[in-house]
Amino acid sequence: MRYIRSIAGIFAKSPFKPLYSHAEKSCEAAYKLEEIVQAYCDGDVARVQKLSEEISALEHEADKIKQTTRKRLPYSILLPVNRQDLLEFLKTQDGISDFAEDVAKLMTLRSYVLTKEIKSGLLEMAKMTTKTIDAYLKAVERIERLGTTYFRKNEILGALELIPLVEELEHEIDKIEILLTKKIFLAEDEIGAVGVFHLAKISDVLGGVSNSAARAVDRLRTMISR
């Protein structure tokens, strides 16, 4: 018997379309991280403030999409996926823009004359975060497209194949973060104890963006594999 499944479902519109809209807006906030990290490393306080406000605005828009999606998700209509899985995915995905906003806010609190090693570490993390978000959006976009068609089991597996790359990139960022944290502690004489704490926090929260993406694709895997 052929395995045929419709993500769109017979009884409901595709729940993946609003999820993808939320993903786009959340990732739009994350895409600005390279810019704000560069401005922070350059000591451009005014630009950091401006970008922080832009990121906060995008996070707020993502929040509104999340709230609307939750309200419109029907209880009475049979959904093509488990409702709780869908809500957990939405919540986890929301962490992408939440962490992006937190990074931006932390950068507005205090600036430093950063060492070359710290600058390179922050910039490398930001660039890898962009790559992770690129991979994440491709995975979610594939699922959104599957939500409009009838497809066989091998098509589901094709979508699942996009997920490991996000997890691999997140792992690479973890390694960069560890090295960066060591560099931050070694620079205590230049930036002071408060600077060490502050920059280590920025590094940790920046890593939270890719961590949220990795956790979200794991939720996505669970949701479409049941």
Task: Note the topology.
Elements: E1 4-6, H1 16-31, H2 33-42, H3 45-72, H4 83-109, H5 116-146, E2 150-152, H6 153-160, H7 163-186, H8 188-225
Antiparallel strand pairs: 1-2
Helix pairs in contact: 1-3, 1-4, 1-5, 2-3, 2-4, 2-5, 3-4, 4-8, 5-6, 5-7, 5-8, 7-8
Descriptive overview:
With 226 residues, this protein is mainly α. The chain has one domain (11-225): Phosphate transport system protein phou homolog 2, domain 2 (Methane Monooxygenase Hydroxylase, Chain G, domain 1), CATH 1.20.58. The chain is 81% helix and 3% strand. The chain is built from 8 helices and 2 strands. It has helices at 16-31, 33-42, 45-72, 83-109, 116-146, 153-160, 163-186, 188-225, and strands at 4-6, 150-152. A two-stranded antiparallel sheet has the order 1-2. α2 runs parallel beside α4, α4 runs antiparallel to α8 and α5 packs antiparallel against α7. It is elongated, with a radius of gyration of 19 Å. The two termini are 18 Å apart. Residues 1-12 have low confidence and may be disordered.
Strand order of the main beta sheet, please?
1-2
Structural class: mainly alpha
CATH class: Mainly Alpha
CATH superfamily: Phosphate transport system protein phou homolog 2, domain 2
What Rg is obtained from the alpha carbons, in whole angstroms?
19 Å
Q: Which consecutive residue ranges, at least 5 long each, have pLDDT under 50? A: 1-12
Q: How far from one another are the termini? A: 18 Å
Task: List SSEs in N-to-C order.
Answer: EHHHHHEHHH
Under the CATH scheme, the architecture is Up-down Bundle
Query: Beta fraction of the residues?
Result: under 5%
DSSP E strands, number: 2
Shape: elongated
Structural domain count: 1
